[in-house]
């Protein structure tokens, strides 16, 4: 039975949070590493000269980890995907070696399976794992006979050409139009069914294919790759000109030996012929005991015989002693030799283990090959050649721009060959990556340079992930200083000679700041240009413009921009369209930048309580993302003053991350730098799911806070806090859980503005129960039950008060009237402040004081109004928290999550976060 894997473009892939091209279905028996390897050859080229209607059939032998697999593939066009762009589908069958041996014994070849399989042409289902019933039984795939070879050459025997000695080393087949290449391979494989499953082939060579993966490679006569293969050292079989084809090999005849010359089977012993046995028997000493003189012998002869016997015994003992010494010495020498041999073999195996540990290798097939060497002397030489390769590997990974020659060891395995190809790709990726960024091909803007840099970083991160299947790698090394320096030189030349796009100053600043790596600082001249440009947009722009016009070293476009800056009075007059003096006109108030920490804000606040060992990616959905949005990132307790584009970010405040462009994808990827490695970026899908998060933030006890703003930075889209929890508990009674765990559990403390409750979302929690416990003295400790009433707010059931409802109602009504009067007075004071003669600085200070006092009164007023409504009946009321310390408890059937909340007054634009 064969496993299936299906690869195409879909809005949701099998890997959570991913969209676009990828695996949409596979059997669970297909490991992640095996699936990644199969995905590598699932690409369908759409280049000039390649027929988009072609169907590609291929058979590969793939080594992954310690196992090998036969992979049968069918790739073809699949129309349009969910975005309206071109799509293709790659359908794969994965066959284990034992299954292949069974099929070979039954005479079934890979081409028979490829010919008879019902291949999918599209995928409209959702992503899923295939069940056991969807495994494919290959035993019935016996394709009918065909005559494709005879239609080309006139002889069916031509099918044996592919089994010629030179062709078996590797060949290219140039096929004419209208010929079914799969049938050609099928006829050839039927001639050697026992070897068919060891033959690798493809019916159409793709630009992304590695020819080393195949023995037989076909390509159409019209393929743009034909000129490339004609210069190859492989045998070229041009089926468009059959007269040039070699003759098929003659069938080998096995010689038959005549019976007269047949050798007898080997025997355990070799008895002598009967005649010789008789002769020996007759001449044996036992048969000569009687002499010609009868039984009489002289006495002297008897004495001489006794003396000879004694001498013979002594001599025999001496010989035996010598033999014992020789044999014993030989055994000792043999034992010593065997011991030395075992020690050498143990040292060899230890050297292999040390090599794998030293270079963090995951090449299981290569390791088993080295360990299986019968001669440790040969193995030592082989291991040294591999160590030389691994030493070069380390240099290539750390210094890919140096173009290091890295030949493979003479004897190698598939996993090492695959790894070597990835190393070559890694080197090629760093070989002049900015070659197409040339001013002579058109003006270069910061957006295009940033896009090129982002695509290169994405390709770099993808290739690094593939390398990690063979070597245990950590974070990818940063780009070399020389590459970054060259990119910045290209950007500098472009900024000097080409007027930048309107409103692109921030993009140029990010380009020069965020590409700063190692010893490549921002060029002093570029820094001067950007500083001057920013000054022209600032409040003192006119004075800066006069200095800019006098500085002839600045670019022409910057001096032209300075020439267009008007004096302040003139700007007001032009804006008002009036002939009255500018000083008497009141400038129009610009729309304020929304404050994420304001108690009167309306943007949603998302909280996700991260369990130990849990990955937040894929768990947080429904975020209101926008294309081109800005993102500010930091620790969960960092403040976020409204950005003004001028004030530098301070410690304890969120920092703006760069938007990294992804070619052909709608995902939003952000990083602290444009050159950030993939593991240091976070990504949102276009549907509002958080699909990737830096590992450093997932493990940080401070958690992470993200504030998203629209592309202009004026409106807050959402405020997301991800808080790691270090303890959970499971108890049957909810009230007891609070008492038993709230004080002893290690929790995360979070600062939130007063009034946040109506904007709260608990991300990743479907419909749990919520509770809030007010901290403080015994009289203040109250538990409020929360009930979800919508997508963005809660209903709260306050605890019963011990005092009389009537007395409490009177007191609440009196306090409400006082607060309402105070708010009216604050509004009047604010209106009077705008027309007062106070200085601008005095107005700003007094305005902040009035605004803060009014906000506090409004929060308290809403609380009292809610309380007044709640004591009139048992129904739930909307509720907001006053400043203070609380414990948020989220109870689910199998866990309890705890989070400390410190509700603080509204943060002003120049305030610092309040950390506990």
From TrEMBL:
> Which keywords does UniProt give here?
Membrane, Transmembrane, Transmembrane helix
Q: Which organism is it from?
A: Prosthecobacter vanneervenii
**Residues covered by the GTPase-associated protein 1 N-terminal domain:** 1-132
The biased composition feature labelled Polar residues covers: 284-302
Indicate what this protein is called per its UniProt record.
Answer: GTPase-associated protein 1 N-terminal domain-containing protein
Q: Tell me where the transmembrane regions lie.
A: 312-333
Q: Where is the signal peptide?
A: none
Q: Where is this region: Disordered?
A: 238-302, 576-597
């Amino acid at each position: 039975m064969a496993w299936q894997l299906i690869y195409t473009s879909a809005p949701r892939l099998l890997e959570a949070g991913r969209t676009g091209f990828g695996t949409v279905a596979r059997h669970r028996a297909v490991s992640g590493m095996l699936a990644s390897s199969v995905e590598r050859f699932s690409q369908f080229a759409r280049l000039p000269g390649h027929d988009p209607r072609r169907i590609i059939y291929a058979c590969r032998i793939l080594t992954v980890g310690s196992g090998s697999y036969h992979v049968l593939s069918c790739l073809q066009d699949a129309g349009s995907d969910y975005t309206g762009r071109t799509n293709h589908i790659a359908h794969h069958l994965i066959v284990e070696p034992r299954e292949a041996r069974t099929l070979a014994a039954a005479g079934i070849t890979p081409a028979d399976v490829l010919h008879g399989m019902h291949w999918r042409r599209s995928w409209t289902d959702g992503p899923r794992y295939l069940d056991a019933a969807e495994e494919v039984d290959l035993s019935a795939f016996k394709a009918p006979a065909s005559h494709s070879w005879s239609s080309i050459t006139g002889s069916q025997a031509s099918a044996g050409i592919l089994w010629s000695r030179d062709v078996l080393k590797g060949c290219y087949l140039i096929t004419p139009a209208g010929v079914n290449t799969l049938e050609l391979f099928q006829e050839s494989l039927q001639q050697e069914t026992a070897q068919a499953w060891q033959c690798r082939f493809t019916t159409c060579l793709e630009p992304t294919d590695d020819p080393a993966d195949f023995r037989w490679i076909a390509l159409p006569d019209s393929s743009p790759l034909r000129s490339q293969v004609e210069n190859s050292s492989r045998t070229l079989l041009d089926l468009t000109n059959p007269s040039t084809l070699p003759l098929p090999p003659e069938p080998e005849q096995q010689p038959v030996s005549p019976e007269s010359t047949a050798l007898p089977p080997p025997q355990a012993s070799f008895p002598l012929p009967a005649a010789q046995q008789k002769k020996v028997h007759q001449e044996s000493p036992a048969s000569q005991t009687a002499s010609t003189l009868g039984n009489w012998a002289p006495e002297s002869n008897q004495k001489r015989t006794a003396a000879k016997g004694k001498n013979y015994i002594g001599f025999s003992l001496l010989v035996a002693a010598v033999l014992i010494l020789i044999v014993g010495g030989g055994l000792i020498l043999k034992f010593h030799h065997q011991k030395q041999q075992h020690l050498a073999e143990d040292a060899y195996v230890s050297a292999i283990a040390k090599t794998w540990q030293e270079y963090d290798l995951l090449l299981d097939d290569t390791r088993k090959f080295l360990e299986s060497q019968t001669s440790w002397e040969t193995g030592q030489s082989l291991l040294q050649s591999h160590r030389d390769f691994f030493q070069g590997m380390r240099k290539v990974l750390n210094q890919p721009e140096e173009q290091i020659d890295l030949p493979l060891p003479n004897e190698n395995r598939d996993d090492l060959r695959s790894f070597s190809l990835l190393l070559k790709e890694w080197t090629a990726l760093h070989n002049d990556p900015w070659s197409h960024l040339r001013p002579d091909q058109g003006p270069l803007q910061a957006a295009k340079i940033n896009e090129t840099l982002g695509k290169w970083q994405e390709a770099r991160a993808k290739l690094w992930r593939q390398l990690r299947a063979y070597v245990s790698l950590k974070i990818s090394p940063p780009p070399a200083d020389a590459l970054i320096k060259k990119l910045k030189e290209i950007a500098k030349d472009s900024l000097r000679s080409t007027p930048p796009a309107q409103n692109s100053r921030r993009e140029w600043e990010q380009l020069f700041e965020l590409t700063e790596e190692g010893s490549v600082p921002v060029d002093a001249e570029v820094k001067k240009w950007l500083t001057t440009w920013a000054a022209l947009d600032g409040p003192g722009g006119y004075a800066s413009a006069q200095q800019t016009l006098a500085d002839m070293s600045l670019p022409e476009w910057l001096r032209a921009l300075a020439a267009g800056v008007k004096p302040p009075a003139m700007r007001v007059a032009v804006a008002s369209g009036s002939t009255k003096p500018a000083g008497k006109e009141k400038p129009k108030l610009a729309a304020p930048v929304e404050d994420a920490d304001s108690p009167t804000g309306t943007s949603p606040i998302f909280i996700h309580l991260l369990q130990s060992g849990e990955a937040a990616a894929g768990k947080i959905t429904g975020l209101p993302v926008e294309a081109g949005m800005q993102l500010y990132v930091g620790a969960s307790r960092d403040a976020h003053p409204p950005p003004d584009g001028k004030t530098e970010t301070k410690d304890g405040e969120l920092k703006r991350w760069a938007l990294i462009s992804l070619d052909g994808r709608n995902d939003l990827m952000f990083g602290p730098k444009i050159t950030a490695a993939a593991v240091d970026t976070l990504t949102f899908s276009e549907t509002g799911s958080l699909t990737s998060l830096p590992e450093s933030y997932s493990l940080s006890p401070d958690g992470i806070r993200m504030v998203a703003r629209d592309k202009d930075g004026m409106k807050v889209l959402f405020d997301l806090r991800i808080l790691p929890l270090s303890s959970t508990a499971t108890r049957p009674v909810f009230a007891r859980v609070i008492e038993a765990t709230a004080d002893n559990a290690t929790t995360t403390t979070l600062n939130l503005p007063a009034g946040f409750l109506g904007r709260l979302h608990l991300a990743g929690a479907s419909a749990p129960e919520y509770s809030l416990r007010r901290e403080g003295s015994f009289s203040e400790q109250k538990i409020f039950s929360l009930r979800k009433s919508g997508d963005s707010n809660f209903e709260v059931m306050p605890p019963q008060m011990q005092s009389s409802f009537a007395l409490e109602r009177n007191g609440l009504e009196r306090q409400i009237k006082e607060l309402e009067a105070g708010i009216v007075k604050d509004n009047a004071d604010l209106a009077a402040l705008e027309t007062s003669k106070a200085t601008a600085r005095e107005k700003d200070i007094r305005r902040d004081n009035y605004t803060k006092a009014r906000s506090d009164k409004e929060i308290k007023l809403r609380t009292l109004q809610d309380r007044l409504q709640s004591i009139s009946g048992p129904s739930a009321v909307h509720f907001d928290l006053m400043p203070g310390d609380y414990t948020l408890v989220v109870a689910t059937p199998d866990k309890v999550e705890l989070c400390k909340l410190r509700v603080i007054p509204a943060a002003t634009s120049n305030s610092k976060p309040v950390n506990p």
